[in-house]
Input
Amino acid sequence: MNKLNTSSSELDLDRPNIEDYLPSGSIQEPHGTLRLRDLLDISPTLTEAAGAIVDDSFTRCFKSNPPEPWNWNIYLFPLWCLGVVVRYGLLFPSRVLVLTIGWIIFLSCYFPVHFLLKGHDKLRKKLERGLVELICSFFVGSWTGVVKYHGPRPSIRPKQIFVANHTSMIDFIVLEQMTAFAVIMQKHPGWVGLLQSTILESLGCIWFNRSESKDREIVARKLREHVHGADNNPLLVFPEGTCVNNHYTVMFKKGAFELGCTVCPIAIKYNKIFVDAFWNSRKQSFTTHLLQLMTSWAVVCDVWYLEPQNLKPGETPIEFAERVRDIISVRAGLKKVPWDGYLKYSRPSPKHRERKQQSFAESVLRRLEER
Amino acid sequence: MGSASSMLTQYDIEEVQEHCNHLFTQQEIVSLYKRFCQLDRNAKGFISADEFLSVPEFAMNPLSQRLLKMVDGLNFKDFVAFLSAFSAKATVPQKIEIIFKVYDSDCNGKVTFNDLNEVLHDLTGSFMSEKQRKEVLSQLLHEAGYTKESSLLLHDFIKIMEHSGLKMEVEIPED
Output
């Protein structure tokens, strides 16, 4: 395996060797004297390209896999129709009602607490935490969320950070109803953004912007400050950086793993029996996604709080991140792929192509010398 | 079948199978159609260059730009015909033919020294100098009985690569 002399740009140190994961069986070390046919034979490269066109592990991560339809025969179809009537006519309105009541209670308690208790920070924070947990419970109730939590509940201690796999923004709500985490999220437009800047701000949440590269240093600094603060809310990070379809995990970004604190992994697995909870942000807005959840029977999932991990001596942050990703993937039954989630928004770095080019060029030059 | 429908009829499958000389089974054509629809985001009936490049494994390939010229904008029938050279059932001359087409970017049936140099450039990037590339090519062409000025035709390619144990196959997943 040729190690490329990389300039140490952050983007490259962010991931281990992709070649270790990709099928490279077609590229064999050629033997024998270099002939014209060896240069003309571009079949290994073409095979890789055609293989990628036909099927690739990256696109598979973001494919929605809706549950199999069961309403396909004459007995089941009327039953399904009845179900639709119940879901849209009965469940949906009552859920909207429950959610509205929840919001009214929340807002009427939150603002007084926030402004009147300005001086008594400890009490104020405690109440705000309780209120956020309450509104999240209302949200989860509004989809009839059946969540089973396994393992010891997160405790509020300094120098620890929680990481979880990411399927939809509702991951945050499902986890938040149990513990008021401070989360690090992409800043969104619209009503979500409004919620982010008002309520979530008070929990100590940190915002980032994917499209700004300088942003990373600022965010890294904020992470460090938060984690070392004694009575900040425990910090929750989704190291994948994007929503994945709950069958795979993409590579974890190392940011959360190089802060010198304990990493507590959380694994989340949704049961697709009634609805697929994957938020395919290419296909639907968050509002549509929520409406889809609110008109289905239930959202069923399992949450496992796993054993806290520390950086082992001699382990790099990237290896640490991969080890934790392994722990989470095994627990939730997810397959690992070697891709950076941000490739959803941008093209791969030219370094990968250059690596292949270097390998080929060196092979040709070496065989030339051997003649 | 053309544009927006996401269901293939038996007639459609047979038409596509005919067009690719029966190099794919009907099941493979159905799987390829699912893949085609997955890549063609807004059901236009063809896959744009941008959509091909959104597959990182493809974008990383040194020959991606050359291949893009060949697959950009193809409808499903032609897409399958293009991929048929990679079927296990395709003959060696059929595989050599697609390799020839990758080299012959101006589609005039002749591969010149310049074409060979350009493909080698794609494969080696900045890790071989122009001088080294031209030297290697001249030397190897000369040994095979050609000159820098020769234009290679398809039957030259077949003659050169026929017995090299060419293996160029792609498996269509069942999924």
Remarks:
- Chain A touches chain B at residues 22, 26, 34-37, 39-43, 45-59, 63, 282, 339, 343, 347-348, 352-354, 356-358, 360-362, 364-365, 368 (CB under 8 Å).
- The beta strands of chain A are 145-150, 160-164, 182-186, 206-208, 235-237, 248-251, 262-271, 299-305, 335-340.
- The first helix of chain A runs from residue 10 to 13.
- The two ends of chain A are 24 Å apart (CA to CA).
